[in-house]
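Review form for a predicted model. The reviewer records the input and the model, then writes brief findings.
Reviewer: anonymous (R2)
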Amino acid sequence: MKPTNPKFFISIIFLLLLLNACKSLPGGDALKNPPNPKERVAKNLEEGKGFRLSNATKNLGKTSYEFASSNELWRASLDTIDFMPLTSANYSGGIIITDWYSDNSSPNESIKIIIRFLTNEIRADALNIKIFYKNCKSITNCLITEKETSLKNELRKEILKKAAIYKKDFNDKNFKKYDYPENARN
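Model under review:
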């Protein structure tokens, strides 16, 4: 490689930049780090820089999300619309989509409900409910619209009511009174 070659100058500049970046690596200052390895480990764990193998294996095989049956809103929603056929029920995506449903009294009209979960908390704004209406004059001539009707509010109210009951039942079943030790009651 000749010194006048542009690739040579680019590689030298790259090497200098790389070496310049090395002096800012963490952990290289002996004055800031204790020389005793046990003290360094303790310091790193306090600062959240390390991990313990025992803690890493503690939750082995467990997931970070709860199973769908423990979510009161999810269960209450499925129980409320259990008479309707489902197209999709995706717990991790937080959405339930029903298929078109029609009772026998009006076969040309049917509804479809989409429930999206915005949070797992039992509150009025936790659910986004959309209701679509399909009105067919013939098999190929159908009009689909989304309407704001009282059915949406009734559905939300029923889901929240059932979810609150499920939550109360769960809390009552899992409540354990803490018994103070005899010497701590004084």
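Findings: DSSP finds five helices and five strands in the chain.
Further findings: The radius of gyration is 31 Å.
Recommendation: see findings above.
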